[in-house]
Amino acid sequence: KQEVTQIPAALSVPEGENLVLNCSFTDSAIYNLQWFRQDPGKGLTSLLLIQSSQREQTSGRLNASLDKSSGRSTLYIAASQPGDSATYLCAVPMNSGYSTLTFGKGTMLLVSP
Amino acid sequence: DAGVIQSPRHEVTEMGQEVTLRCKPISGHDYLFWYRQTMMRGLELLIYFNNNVPIDDSGMPEDRFSAKMPNASFSTLKIQPSEPRDSAVYFCASSFEGEAFFGQGTRLTVV
Lengths: 113, 111
Description:
Chain A is mainly beta. Helices cover 0% and strands 57% of the residues of chain A. By secondary structure, chain B is mainly beta. In chain B, a hairpin with a 2-residue loop joins strand 5 and strand 6. Chains A and B meet through strand 4, strand 5, strand 9 and strand 10 of A and strand 5, strand 9 and strand 10 of B.
């Protein structure tokens, strides 16, 4: 059974810092990996999708990397802003033809002005 | 596309009542998922459909929960009878080629 772990569970940084969120998964037979953002009381917003054949994806100040062999992904946020404050979740579907997503419990990020 | 649309956004009901949550997936997506989120357990997959066919309902907590997808543009999650421990945020998501998009969720409170 796939298990996804996110470290740290919570992170508080001052505005302007670069930061890294970590995600690890136990079964490397993944189809892709997706990073989401969730604001309090809201749904999940897709941030980045990395296909299993890719090593990284970038969107603005966000960069996500994927190392399938070690079962790890990182989300790098450059020059953090208070508006980045949210919970960040990573999710992986299995590479079995099905598309069920397994989620980590998320990293709660607080960026203070 | 307007994204995944869920209704209602909030539902407050009394214990024992029937609750029906609705979802309209993104057009063209071939998978639909129902998740439940609580502080204690995080996001839990309840059931998912592929091309309107239920594939895995092992996450459905009890027989009180049922889900249907009568066509590609509509799904329901029903709880009958509802109990206070069912209080949670229920999310519907749809995906195509492994990329998932979530609705805004239905916050269910059973009193």
